[in-house]
Design goal:
The complex is a heterodimer of chains A (281) and B (327). Chain A is mainly alpha-helical. Helices cover 74% and strands 0% of the residues of chain A. With 327 residues, chain B is mostly helical. The termini of chain B are close together. The chains are: A mainly alpha (281), B mainly alpha (327). Chain B: It is a multi-pass membrane protein.
Chain lengths: 281, 327
């Protein structure tokens, strides 16, 4: 563990990313304390510029506090990112493991299925899914999970293909272990590092996807989200630039920090690869 | 590839593409049936058109009283004859609505694509030439930035800077309203309107292609044939262009094919921000009106565009790289 941290620390960007990410987490956790009450409530006069009347980031067209919206939106963004990634990992790891371990016909079938999902325009599919199943936090998470599992399946399959012929797997087979216990207990732990790196990047892209959906008005109508904030600021951008600028910065900082952490994890978990790259990243 | 093997390769790719399109139609069909409530009300669109008589007529028309597989067959037949249903919100066939809007979207995504690939490859090559220099760091930082920025927000920020503050460029639409223009003036007008949306849509992919080009160029630069060329005394500029870049382009092309779908998807966001009159804007309007036939039509149409694009990149790949595995 200490070794892992030492290697992680070597990537300066990743350390900055981790600090930023912790900051976003702190903001999300402290939102009810910093901004008690609902972010949907009127807090001041409409269209107050940042800094006026004690409104740090200004107010929107209905006098709602933009800063409160951002703080409460952080909770939703992080939650949607994490939960949809967990579901996508579940689907991707299962399918990838089946394809990589069984090979042959099962592999062909799963890979054709995966390719199909990678071909169709995923964002359009996500829009369609949320629109048809009516926008709610569940349908948003489900739609994001449905369009983001294919890369996981590919990565896991590749890992399983290269691992299943190794001695320790053969040894487990000779010992008479069941397939399931070999897959879960022996191969999967050895395939974890690329999955972890991928997961951090998936949370980032899930947050982007969620913001895009709620920007289009497909967010849960009861939840304040960053995309919704930007969407409501779109038509009044000439009047109130702060309504769309600050929530966008929040998305940017969060997604950037996750990407940086992902790179750091990749360096720390694959030390050989990091050295090959000459630490240029 | 030998010329004699090209037709077989082509045929296999076409068959595969047709299968994907069929799967998309089935996918659409299942979505309509999985939707909460009656498929007829989904097809009618939730608002406005939901009187019982009309729903009854729709049920008969689509054979919703028939067994499942027959319904699927009816649906397949109608979609493949390019009957994508009828939008009762807009009182027009979906296929016609999409056909009217398609050229604008193709113009936008095409311009964004050329900008992204051209700029990305150039920047990536520059970064790879001077690893560790400030230009390299700047390009890496730029790529990281655009990786993390929502597309629609970039669009809004560009509007804010170039239309609201500097007043250099128009912020919405495809042409100026209320002015009579002729000849080159029309082209110039559209180009001005196109600039910001195309930049918005292209910047993210520019970053993607720049990083990819940089990575693959560094990889190729290590290979033996490059060392050989250098040992022979080939000038450095020529090595970069003819030996390294040419080989590094292959993964970029593959990736561009894979990304086509996302480019089309992203155009929905960009067209929404800039009120660009393409199918993305159509999808957004349909979204607001819960006009499902149009949404399903847009999904079908964008998927077909992506499939065609993939087919084109496959062929391009086979032509550029004779070693490509046929299969």
């Amino acid at each position: 563990m200490r070794d892992f941290w030492r290697r992680y620390r070597r990537n300066k960007g990743a350390v900055v990313g981790l600090a930023l990410l912790l900051l976003v987490f702190a903001l999300a956790a402290a939102a009810p304390l910093l901004f008690p009450g609902s972010p949907w409530d009127m807090a001041g006069a409409p269209f107050l510029p940042p800094g006026e009347m004690g409104m740090l980031l200004g107010t929107d067209s209905l006098g709602r506090d933009v800063a409160a919206g951002i703080a409460h939106g952080a909770r939703i963004s992080l939650m949607v990112g994490a939960v949809s990634t967990i579901f996508a990992l579940g689907v991707g790891v299962s399918l990838g493991a089946i394809a990589g371990y069984l090979g042959g016909f099962a592999d062909d079938l799963v890979m054709r299925f995966t390719e199909f999902f990678q071909t169709i325009p995923s964002f359009v599919l996500a829009i369609l899914l949320v629109a048809i199943f009516t926008p709610s936090i569940t349908s948003v998470i489900a739609a994001i999970a449905i369009v983001s599992w294919p890369p996981v399946a590919r990565v896991v399959r590749a890992e399983f293909l290269s691992l299943r012929g190794r001695e320790f797997v053969q040894a487990a087979e000779v010992l008479g272990k069941s397939r399931l216990s070999i897959v879960v207990g022996d191969i999967l732990p050895n395939a974890l590092s690329p999955i972890i790196v991928l997961a951090s990047l998936m949370v980032a892209s899930a947050i982007l996807l969620e913001s895009a959906l709620s920007f289009l008005g497909l967010g849960d109508p009861n939840l304040m989200t960053w995309g919704f904030l930007i969407g409501s600021g779109r038509s009044v951008i000439r009047l109130a630039w702060w309504m769309s600028v600050f929530p966008g910065l929040a998305i940017f900082v969060t997604v950037l920090s996750l990407n940086l952490v992902g790179e750091g994890l990749s360096d720390a978990l694959n030390p050989r690869l990091a050295r090959q790259r000459g630490g240029a990243a | 590839m030998e010329a004699s093997r090209l037709p077989g390769f082509l045929a296999r790719r076409v068959v595969k593409s047709v299968l994907v399109v069929l799967a998309i139609v089935v996918c659409n069909f299942l979505l309509v049936h999985a939707a909460p409530g009656d498929p007829a009300s989904v097809m009618a669109g939730q608002s406005g058109a939901a009187d019982p008589l009309f729903l009854e007529q729709l049920r008969r028309q689509f054979g919703l009283d028939q067994p499942f597989h027959i319904q699927l067959w009816v649906y397949l037949k109608s979609v493949l004859s390019l009957d994508l249903g009828f939008s009762h919100r807009q009182q027009a066939p979906v296929a016609q609505l999409i056909a009217e809007r398609l050229p604008a979207t193709l113009l936008l995504t095409g311009a964004a694509f050329i900008f992204a690939v051209g700029g990305g490859v150039a920047l990536g090559a520059l970064a790879a030439r001077r690893v560790g220099s400030w230009a390299d760091s700047a390009i890496t930082a730029l790529a990281l930035t655009f990786y993390a920025t929502p597309l629609f927000w970039v669009g809004l920020m560009l509007v804010l800077v170039f239309s609201v503050w500097l007043e250099w460029l128009p912020s919405f639409g495809m042409s100026s309203v209320g002015v009579e223009l002729h000849g080159m003036a029309v082209v110039w007008d559209v180009a001005q309107h196109l600039l910001l949306p195309a930049l918005t849509l292209g910047l993210f992919y520019l970053a993607v292609y720049a990083r990819l080009t940089r990575a693959t160029m560094l990889e190729v630069a290590d290979q033996d044939f490059v060392k050989t060329a250098r040992a022979k005394g080939v000038p450095e500029g020529r090595i970069t262009r003819a030996h390294i870049l040419r080989n590094a382009l292959l993964p970029v092309i593959t990736f561009a094919g894979i990304q086509a779908g996302q480019l089309v998807g992203g155009s929905i966001l960009v067209e929404t921000v800039f009120a660009w009159p393409g199918i993305g804007r159509l999808a957004f309007e349909a979204l607001l009106a819960r006009d499902y036939p149009v949404l399903l039509g847009v999904f079908f149409c964008t998927s077909v565009i992506v499939v065609l694009f993939n087919l084109a990149t496959d062929l391009l790949y086979a032509v550029i790289d004779p070693r490509v595995e046929v299969g």
